[in-house]
Amino acid sequence: MSTTQVHANLTDEQVRQISGDLDEPEWLLETRLEALEALEDLEMPDVIRTPGRDWTNLHELDYESLVDPLNAAENKDQVGPDDVDVLPWAEAVAEHEDLIKEHFGSIVDPQENYLTALSTALFSTGTVIYVPEGVDAEDVTIRTEQNSRSLFNYTLVVTEESSSVTILERQSTGEEQDEQYYSGIVEVIAGENSNVQYGSLQNLSEEAYNFSLKRGDAGTYATIDWIEVNLGTQLTKSGVSTELNGDSSETQIVGAFYGHNDQHFDIDAKVWHRAEHTTADLVTRGVTDDVARSVYEGVQDVGRDAWDTSSYQRENTLMLSDESEADASPKLIINNHDTEASHSATVGQIDQEDLFYMTSRGIDPRSARNMLVEGFFVPVMEEIAVDELREDLEELVGARLRQRE
Amino acid sequence: MSSDQDHLKETDTEARFEFKKEENSAVRSGKGLTEEVIRMISEDKDEPEWMLERRLRALKQYHNMPMPTDWPGQPDLTELDIEEIVPYIRPDVDKREGVDDWTELPDEIKDTFDKLGIPEAEKNALSGVGAQYESEVVYQNMQEQWEEKGVVFMNMDRAVKEHPELVKEYFMTTCVPPSDNKFAALHGAVWSGGSFVYIPEDVTVEMPVQAYFRMNSEGMGQFEHTLIVAEEGSEVHYIEGCSAPKYGAHNLHSGCVEVFVGEDAHVQYSTVQNWSKNTFNLNTKRAICEENATMEWVSGSMGSKATMLYPCTILKGRGATDTHITIAFAGEGQNIDTGAKVYHNAPETSSTIESKSISKDGGRTNYRGLVHIADGAENSSTAVECDALMFDNESTSDTMPYMEIEESKVDVAHEATVGKIGDEDIFYLQSRGLDDDDAKKMIVAGFIEPITEELPIEYAVELNRLIELEMEGSLG
């Protein structure tokens, strides 16, 4: 199987060097080495399969040629207000070892699949955000600009009781190469009654491949809201999920993507209701153009003990071209009957009547189409409480539309 | 006698291998489906050579295909030992009379019919007692009424002999080839009985064609084949009363339905199935629609230990239409994995899927659907709606739709809801003087109404009664 391809090329020494450069404790090095060791036995992340096809073929990627562990280069900016710790990885290791030891890999198992293990073994950059009890923090930003063939990033967010934080993360490409690989894992631990808002804007080079996995654990009365925007790369496999482990916890996952040229987005949004009175709202809107392809999987999993659950999901895809493809699979898995749950998904093109109405009002067809696409994103824009992210998205969508013939 | 055995006779070690040979040829030996068994079935049915050849080819394909094991949330099939089915073939062929006395039926089955209020004559038909005979009567009537117009409605085994040209053309060739899946291959090898319906061009069969089809020998009846060919401009409603419970030892029903809907033709296939709770119900049902053809599936899936059934329509011609209306009920220990598949392979095709499920007492229902809109199937539309009703916290209900959309000029919508039986609804009905049980029954009857109104009255009544009985927990 192709799963051993990179491992053969990677050595313990490389991993030791990465860990040593960051001055990591022995236990963390061990975790990395174990992940490296496990590579040969691990499978690629699950992708949707229907008769005769894998919806996303990760096996076709040549990771061996993409991964260059000792030459990582980036331009990073990580800032936040004074009462919150926003620390680069090496500093965080020095200052908050106990916190990291407690939470690292607690939600995303380093050995969950081949790509999480690869990420764990090789990550050389990262951020720890620690929000103490009762602190309300806005404007934490993490900007990562990739300047090397491969870059592995890790983010840990821990909020103490009754705190709140808004985080905005962006990934972009500085120095472009023929092919690049960006891998990012985010773990969020939201303490009791805390509130985490995590927005992410992925706008990497269209030559790049991307694997990202973001997962949160919501404590009692906690809220975790995700905003996941994907615009760049030629292939993205992105997963955003929340475990509602505390009673009365809540989550919202807002997704937006816009694929053109030959981009391929494989996006999933998942929620596990594991406690009582939990609420989830999943909303994703995406556009596919040219020969782009989108694959969406949404899962609402209601556990046996999740009494009084409310869970909603909707996904809409707009196809702008005849050669694009949009696949969707919204799933409901219900084990507790005290549940109100629904999901819906639609795929369609621009409404011809709307277009006709606008052109009959004197708007030229191209502008009319662009306005309708921008309008299509409004329901998710409205859910994006981070002004900066919303404005950036509007601008990027507008630019992409204007770029269109 | 196989060539292996001939060969053995010539060797010195014959005596040593003799014991082994006995084991092999004894059908109960657990050696699985063999060529010998297939030849035995075919010979017993006095089949033409070409059908035997098809069976043998299907057998080969069966052995080369994997079991479905890794679908997310699929029913557990580990208790299903296909090797154990074979022994039931041989004795079946031997004793054609089978169980032919009402009194020999298990109590559970007799009770069901009593509770359903089904009259004795119909009980006999439903229970499989002399069903072959009963079926013939039904067919005979149909023939009298329609034969002048060229309508054919008969037992599939008979059709092989009497309409070989039609059967040769349509039987497991383009619609459900045995290579489709392991159970289609199994079916192709050991199929037996079923219905053959042929409607000539522009003929409308105004009354539903009904089959209470049962074989009188155990085992064989579990692999019935239904083949419906509706020529251009014809119309037919075919109903299968499949509320036939199976006897104790039998544990697999693997039927196959193939429907060919010609240009402008209209076929409705309705079925109410109620299998015994030890049955694995693994079927393949598929229709191919030509230009402007309409296919309607109406089904109630009751009973069985595990069901895997996803009726499929291939919309091959421009303007073809498909409708699925299904209801599944899962009670204690049952896992009903059902749904619908539609392939939109031509422009201006449309489909609607309405799926309802009820789970109770630890029952597990699953909607698994696939809607595929091929590149070029422009101006096609599909709407999928799934509703699940759950009675208690031991039960499970999953919805897993897959939508593969390769064409942009389409309209695709999927919606699913899950909810418990509303306390307020029950309270309201109770305040109007209904007791708790009656209130629940009334809510369920309302919930399944979209299905029942598509069925002729006697089937609607039967379905309602079956569900009421399931809710009372008074069925085996």
UniProtKB/TrEMBL annotation, chain A:
SUF system FeS cluster assembly SufBD core domain boundaries: 145-376
Q: Locate the SUF system FeS cluster assembly SufBD N-terminal domain: which residues?
A: 72-138
- Report the superkingdom from the record: Archaea
GO BP field: iron-sulfur cluster assembly
**What Pfam family does this protein match (any one)?**
SUFBD_core
Q: Which family does it belong to?
A: Belongs to the iron-sulfur cluster assembly SufBD family.
* Annotated protein name in UniProt: Fe-S cluster assembly protein SufD
- Origin organism is Natronolimnobius baerhuensis
Top-level taxonomy: Archaea, Methanobacteriati, Methanobacteriota, Stenosarchaea group, Halobacteria
Automatic annotation (TrEMBL), chain B:
**Residue ranges, annotated region (Disordered):** 1-31
Ranges of compositional bias, category Basic and acidic residues: 1-25
Q: Which residues form the SUF system FeS cluster assembly SufBD N-terminal domain?
A: 138-210
**Domain named SUF system FeS cluster assembly SufBD core: which ranges?**
213-447
Taxonomic superkingdom: Archaea
Q: Name one GO biological process term.
A: iron-sulfur cluster assembly
What Pfam family is a match, any one?
SufBD_N
Q: Which residues form a coiled coil?
A: none
Question: Can you tell me which family this protein belongs to?
Answer: Belongs to the iron-sulfur cluster assembly SufBD family.
PANTHER family for this protein: FES CLUSTER ASSEMBLY PROTEIN SUF, UPF0051 PROTEIN ABCI8, CHLOROPLASTIC-RELATED
**Protein known as:** Fe-S cluster assembly protein SufB
Q: Which organism is it from?
A: Natronolimnobius baerhuensis
